[in-house]
Structures are given as C-alpha cells and as structure tokens.
Task: structure prediction
Amino acid sequence: MTLDVLYFAWLRERIGQPRERIETDAATVRDLIADLAARDDWHAAAFADLAAVRCAVDQQLADLDAPLAGAREVAFFPPMTGG
Amino acid sequence: MTLDVLYFAWLRERIGQPRERIETDAATVRDLIADLAARDDWHAAAFADLAAVRCAVDQQLADLDAPLAGAREVAFFPPMTGG
Amino acid sequence: MSARVQTAPFDLAAELAGFGAGAGAIVTFTGVVRDDTGAMAALEIEHYPGMTERALSDYGSEAAIRFALTDWRIVHRHGRLAVGEPIMMVATAARHRHAAFQAADYLMDWLKSRAPFWKREIGHDGAAAWVDAKASDEDALARW
Amino acid sequence: MSARVQTAPFDLAAELAGFGAGAGAIVTFTGVVRDDTGAMAALEIEHYPGMTERALSDYGSEAAIRFALTDWRIVHRHGRLAVGEPIMMVATAARHRHAAFQAADYLMDWLKSRAPFWKREIGHDGAAAWVDAKASDEDALARW
Result:
C-alpha cells in the first residue's frame, strides 16, 4: 500500500522532511511506526518516545492501534498546542 | 429621623410615586415597612408580600432586619432582573 | 477596569480598543434583547441611579481580585431597547482562559440577581409586564 | 456557523457583524500572544492544512448540537505572531447565557488539545522552543 506520511513540529524537524510517500504493509499505525523507525537514525529518534507522539489517519485523530486498511495519509506530531 | 424612601418597578407603580421624604423612628427596615404600610392602601398593597420585596440602605443591598441608625436613603424594589 | 450605565448603544469593538493589554485571554459576554413569542416590541429597563454605578463597580472589583483579572469592563444600558439591541456587556482579561471565563460567568450571575435593574416587556399591543426574577438565576449565584 | 484558518489578523468587530441574530447571549473568547518572561519576540504557529479546517468545523458542529447554539464562529491564525497580537477567537450564540458560556469554554478546551496546531516561541535572541502541551489542558478536556 502507498501512504503519504506527514510530520509536524519537532517530529518534522527530527526527521528532516515534512512528508514522504512510502510503500508499506503495516496493518496498524503502530506497525507503520516500527517500519519507519527502522529506516534510519532520524526516524528512530523521532519515534523514540511514543508517549510524545500523536497521529491522524486521513486527517482524523487516531490512536496507535488504529488500522491502516484503506488509509491514504498518516500524520505524526507531538501533542497539539492550539488555542 | 428624616429618610428619603425610594421605590422602583412595581413597588413604585403601586405606591404611585418614585420617592418620598418621611419622618420615622423606625429602628430597622422591617419597622420602617410597618410604618409605611400603615399610611394608606397603596403602601399597604406594595408591602403585602414581603417575600417579593428587596431593599437597599444608603445604596447597599440590605436585609429586612438591617438597622436604620444613621441611614439617609432607603430603597424598596422587587427582586432585580439585570444582565 | 470600569463600569458604565447608559441609555445609548455601545460598540463592542470600541469597548475592546486597548482593553486587556498584556493579557493572554479576553472573554466578552453580550446580552441581547430576545423575543421568544413574537409578541414583544421592546424591553424597558429601569435602574437605581447612583446605586447601580456603585454596585457594578463593586462587583467588577471583587471579580478582579477573586480571579486575578488584569482588566474588566461592564457596560449596562437602561431605558427602552428594541428586540435585537444589545442590553449589556461584560469583558474580562486574565493571563489564562479559565480565569477570564469564570470571571465573566461570575459577573453575569451577580448582575442578573444583584444589580438594581428591573426589566419590563412591552408588547406590540402596548401592554407592559414586569419580568419576574428567575429561581435559576439565584441558583446560579449560589454556585460561587 | 463557520471555522477559518488564516495568517492575517482578524477583527473581532467584523467577525461579530450579523453574528448570532436572534440570540439572547453572545460569548467571545480571544487568545492573545503573551510574554511572561520578557524574552519572547514572537510566536510561530504551525498547523496541518486540510485537517485543521476539518477539525475546527467538526468541533464547532459538535458544540452547536450539544449546547443548542444558534451560531458559532472559530477563527485561528497560523504563522508568525508578535507579542500582543490576537491568536484566535471563538464566538458562540445561544438563547441563554449558560449555554453560550459553556460552549465557548468547551470549544477552547478542544482547540487547546485536539486541534492540529503547534506553537513555537521565538526569543529576542532568535532561539526557538516548541511549547509543551499542558497536563492541565488535558484535565480541562476531561471535564466534558
């Protein structure tokens, strides 16, 4: 499956790019993180502390065990600080 | 003692005037009400239901047992509906 | 940090010009004449000149201390107001949002039941009826 | 009933023109860039284009149902904002004041912790630091 993966705030900075298109067989967000973290040191650093990582699947907030079937866009970011 | 007595909203309407200057020996607001209610039918009607009457002594909200020593202005009115 | 009573309309934007400098959170409440039945032409608001200004100022000062406000403003109209016209406003400024929200809510509860205003509804047919105080407004005040 | 994300400043008065017609109570919240230490030059706000608009619109619609709002508006800025500049606003309109207050408070709690914005403080010395989410904001959200 082809996925657009987006990064925001310090995850974007650690990974060094705002988005990438990847091929993956990950069934869940957590599987996808394992895939990504294995890519290089930058990805590994970004995902070192999962307690500090939030995600959205197709622009809806999702938890790390959310399934990826049919997903086109997954975003990772730190806890939000709006308002 | 000389007192200015003010009336608002339907108390003013029942009594037929917005204010009057009176001489009284009333020690408390409640005594003053007894004095006023004894004056005529209009005053009696205005003070018929004390549960519906609020008062201020010298422009500070007060309860019916508040003392009048030193007071110059007493106002009677229904429960307030501001805001 | 001011309270005003007036017959003229007020302009929220003008009231907020320069309001709350240095604050992180500004909350405003505006009360508007509402007609639920379609029978109302206007609202007439009577007040107690002298005491009103003092009461609004006292309540504002109390809220400022209780909620550590950096600024506050109360404007309340009296006289005849048409349906849709603004009746009054409260603005509060604080470092954080919860203080600003709570202070505005607190001030509204005080103004509803403890500021010397009395409302009368004037119908299209000219009939006038004093608005009764609501038990729910007394209950709201008891929260604080 | 609208949500907007923009870099440009907004004007509260313009946002409220025609807002909440028929309502009895209008509450606004405005968040302003605050500098507690004197070291901050600006705030930079990053967001997630596409998702942000959707999230704000979803939260507004939820609040409208939950609190029976007759109108609501959310405007949130992104990009670089100087100290003292407005960051965002929420306006809510309802028949009664408690619904309008609660809805604005509710929306702020959602926006703080569930809208995809990330703040970075820029110091006078050029140093940049991401603002950490606050546990108190999560607690506030749990109230609802």
Summary: Chain D has a mean pLDDT of 96. Chain D has one domain: 2-8+23-142. The CA atoms of residues 38 and 76 of chain D lie 24 Å apart.
